[in-house]
Structure to design on (642 residues):
């Protein structure tokens, strides 16, 4: 019996991770922690998985220690995060607390309860900052230059992981996860919001329309959340503690290409207009990662192409209309 | 009239900074912020300086904003910190909050109140971590490798400074301050605690005695707090925003040499015994900085030799017995 504790259990990535666990041969006990009640219906997995949910703010340190003392999980997947760059510009302090401080509480609770477990600390491609085109795709040894409060919070989390690995021999594996997208993603994020607004055009009976956007010339590396959770499982079970792994597709896509793909899949024609309010201070122009390390060390491969993911996101949003 | 706001006003460094301001020709208004009432008697400076004290925890964001709205200082010297490495191992979360989070609150309050001021963000030589002997003395472009929760918190503060400088044009100057020592330093810190215990030997009427210590083979770069505050003033008024400056002596001293110097100055003979409890996880072996940048750019020079500082610390502690 494998015991996995998942923080940020109410979120998008957790829902896909549980679905992945459901597909495994192994017996798994899942302990989900979150401030808010899960939006996904996990009861449908309970014929096979044993799932227990704990409503907790990870800043409640004593409560967290009690949970670890009682459960003693084998694996901890730390997904809880305020993962929006935009939000971090508006609420830097809150963003910092809900990334760096909650993580520090988590690993300290694990240490103080002497819980022997492997921990996955999820970081972000945002940690790299602006990288010269010549240095793309980005490898893990690239110098990091965080450009937003969110990115700084993720770097802090990573540095703290390294300190706890070195000082206490804790088994923390780290990721730098690139933009993940997929069904059930919150519409406040950029790609799902494009999908939503392009579907709005279709469902209003139009064949063409306009959407407002930020800077569409920026390039990101998108990876399907279902491939991401496979990577997380591989890293949790087989990754090397103290090591950092990119999780990415290796391919950069301009945001205007994203809009075009969605429009094609939805079957409407879309024009765009830039709204300066959507432009973030000091944004990274181009982020494309190299998945070489996780591919060669752990045999991970992404299985879903970008257009397929977009297609599934459209189907998912349409099914909820 | 120059308005200077000082956080961490109740502390050791603030007391020396106020003393330094007292010696200036200029008219200065000092606004001191601290959680606790200042232990130093600042009324003796009030014949020349206008000093106002505000009791505040920097986590009280709204109160902080009100203070900035009302005062609109020209300079902010941010000294508030939990600056003990040892403490950060025991209370990592609290240490992190009282370094990184309070700093983020501070700069965000300054930004949101549109206060045009120059800010000094004090960092630490601990950010460098273990540096190869060949790379000593450490220059500011040395790669940083924080090895303790405290060091990570200081790196986070520095990264956040850089983000706010780049994104909002804030005028934040950063230091990496090496171990500062001097009169009035809290006896929980290592050098004052050596002084105290060696004075205990003398005042118990003995000519020799034993003290328990941690690892005495480690090497640190000690700089007199009175030279440090001169550097802080120079940086606040003339440093380049977005730049980092070492504040150090350029000379490494082994802790056993420190014990020897104190013993000689006190006039007793001291043997030492290692207590493993005093040995920190993962400590840096040797930290020696290069003051080249602040010396050449701003003309700073340290004025007090190590033995002179030790002498003054002994006199100070003796006067309080």
């Amino acid at each position: 019996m494998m015991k996995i504790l998942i923080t940020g259990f109410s979120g998008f990535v957790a829902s896909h991770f549980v679905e992945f666990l459901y597909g495994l041969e192994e017996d798994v006990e899942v302990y989900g922690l979150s401030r808010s009640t899960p939006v996904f219906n996990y009861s449908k997995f309970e014929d096979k998985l044993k799932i227990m949910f704990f409503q907790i703010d990870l800043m409640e340190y004593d409560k967290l220690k009690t949970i670890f003392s009682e459960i003693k999980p084998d694996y901890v997947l730390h997904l809880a995060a305020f993962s929006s760059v935009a939000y971090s510009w508006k609420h830097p302090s809150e963003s910092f607390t809900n990334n760096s401080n909650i993580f520090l509480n988590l690993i300290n609770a694990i240490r103080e309860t002497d819980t022997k477990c492997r921990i996955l600390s999820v970081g972000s491609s945002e940690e790299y900052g602006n990288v010269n085109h010549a240095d793309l795709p980005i490898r893990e040894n690239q110098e990091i230059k965080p450009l937003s409060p969110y990115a700084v919070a993720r770097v802090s989390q990573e540095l703290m992981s390294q300190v706890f690995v070195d000082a206490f021999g804790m088994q923390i594996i780290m990721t730098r996860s690139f933009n993940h997208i997929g069904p059930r993603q919150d519409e406040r994020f950029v790609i799902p919001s494009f999908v939503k607004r392009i579907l709005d055009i279709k469902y209003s009976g139009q064949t063409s329309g306009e959407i407002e956007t930020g800077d569409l010339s920026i390039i990101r590396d998108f990876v399907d959340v279902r491939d991401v959770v496979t990577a997380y499982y591989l890293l949790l079970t087989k990754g090397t503690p103290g090591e950092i792994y990119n999780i990415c597709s290796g391919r950069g896509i301009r945001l205007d290409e994203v809009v075009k793909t969605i429009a094609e899949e939805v079957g409407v024609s879309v024009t765009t207009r830039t709204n300066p309010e959507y432009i973030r201070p000091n944004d990274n122009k181009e982020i494309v990662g190299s998945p070489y390390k996780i591919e060669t060390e752990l045999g991970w491969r992404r299985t879903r192409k970008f257009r397929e993911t977009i297609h599934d996101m459209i189907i998912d949003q349409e099914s909820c209309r």
Observations:
- Chain B has a mean pLDDT of 95.
